[in-house]
Design brief:
The structure is a homodimer.
Chain A: H1 9-16, H2 27-40, H3 53-60, H4 64-76, E1 80-83, E2 87-90, E3 98-99, H5 105-108, E4 116-126, H6 130-136, E5 144-153, E6 156-166, H7 173-180, H8 183-189, E7 196-206, H9 209-215, E8 222-231, E9 237-246, E10 251-254
Parallel strand pairs in A: 3-10
Antiparallel strand pairs in A: 1-2, 4-5, 5-6, 6-9, 7-8, 8-9
The structure holds a DNA duplex (19 and 19 nucleotides).
Chain lengths: ~260, ~260
DNA sequence: CAGTGGTCTAGACCACATG
DNA sequence: ATGTGGTCTAGACCACTGG
């Protein structure tokens, strides 16, 4: 940080009345409350960097350990991201994504404000994962196309997808996909003009290092995980997707039809 | 604990070679690994109490702070539950519950091993919550039946449900429900022999104090939350349910039909 | 009452990213 | 070289639970 570096106004206020020492509520929770408000009220903007832990600890009149406890919980809730050696940054407060069923996945984001884009992180071939073997009903010696994509809203990552597809069915995957990064274009080019959603499973987990990096989360942050299956009209299974979502930023919506 | 209280065998082993001081992996993560294995391998049985934090810290040759870090993560994963003033207990490692759609909720647990039971925690009347007002399409001045139920597998809590139903539609709710604690029996008694699932929304969150207590979780543990809606054949909305699940213990499964 | 987990302090060293 | 977050120590006091 620069030489004198003035405190943000929201922090000055906190600095004056740091916390209530004999309150019912633990000190770290009071600090959590204040930071939480500052983040949700917009006193701190998304992407903005917070003062360092040392400075914050001094402002609130506590040890770094106590301060870090508050920070850790805000990270778990997806409001903050810590970058080692760099600083702590405000994430965007959770918007709700209505990821429906019955409709194609791309349409799921229609109701979202802002521009949704997709970044292709990796495209390789490999052996299928254990889940994919079962989901796609292929032998473990088969080859799959492994496609990792990151979905962004206004250049902000909100969803990480790792897809596995039977390589045998899509000999020209890379070529077609390169054109406009569209999966359905690949399907169409291989004689599958329509495909339909077969099943989705939702569970919870914790962000691995790479997931955290791509999603701008602190490692080991809780996340929502999805397993999805698509099949062709003839019933053959053509796509298996593992999804990873920041826990607070998504609301998955399922309708009977 | 009793006077001399011998260490469990799995701990003795750890005690001898506590951790690798100059390893890549952080000390607390190495401790996490050991405890994790002990819990998943069955070296510690579900419901069993661990030695106190002080004892564990000594065994692993670390401070309580470091040990507690490992414990906290195991709590987040639903493997441990800390009870203040009492001790730390092993939870049952996560089983997967296939909570389907299209079928009635009770059937969702059919595939589960062990005996599923339901405990009625509370049954009162009150004003509808904000979510319920929208979900049930009732005015905020209306009255709802507020029903809290805990679902157990072999007397182990796996799912907490808070239901809201328009009181107007079910004048004899309490009487009928008292007979065999069945919701569908109540519906039937009020002229609704059939009802169908309308929608489910899934999101994440963190266990409140009461939720944690009922589900045998440590407070602020990450959980899966569901919002479900049921309606009668004529389309009127008759039930709104908020569900809370231990993050690791559930896999929600959604099919198109 | 004694033992437990929950909280907090005041230091310290490290790996990492940036200029 | 500097400042950052990540880790760890060695104490301490508290509120709670159970016998």
């Amino acid at each position: 940080m620069s030489e004198i570096d003035p405190l943000p106004t929201w922090l000055e206020h906190a600095s004056a009345n740091p916390y209530l020492p004999k309150s019912e509520r633990a000190i770290w929770l009071q600090i959590y409350d204040r930071l939480n408000s500052a983040l949700r009220d917009g006193a701190v903007n998304a992407g903005e960097r917070l003062p360092s832990e040392t400075v914050l600890a001094q402002c609130f009149g506590v040890t770094r350990v106590t301060l870090r406890r508050a920070l850790r919980h805000l990270q778990n809730e997806g409001l903050l991201e810590a970058r080692k050696g760099v600083g702590i940054f405000a994430r965007r407060p959770g918007m709700v994504y209505q990821v429906g069923t019955g409709k194609r996945f791309a349409e799921s984001f229609d109701s979202v404000e802002g521009r949704m884009t997709t970044r292709t992180v990796a495209l390789t071939k490999s052996r299928p994962s254990a889940d994919a073997i079962e989901a796609l009903a292929i032998p473990e010696t088969a080859e799959v196309i492994l496609l990792t994509r990151l979905h962004l809203q206004d250049s902000y990552p909100v969803y990480l997808a790792v897809k596995e597809l039977p390589a045998e069915l899509f000999p020209n995957f890379a070529e077609v996909y390169a054109l406009d990064h569209s999966i359905s274009a690949v399907f169409k080019a291989h004689g599958i003009p329509k495909f339909s959603w077969a099943e989705t499973r939702v569970s919870g987990g914790f962000a691995e290092a790479e997931e955290a990096d791509l999603l701008h989360l602190t490692p080991r942050t809780p996340v929502l995980r999805t397993l999805s299956f698509n099949h062709a009209p003839n019933g053959s299974r053509i796509e298996f997707t593992r999804g990873c979502w920041p826990l607070d930023q998504v609301q998955l919506r399922f309708l009977p039809r």
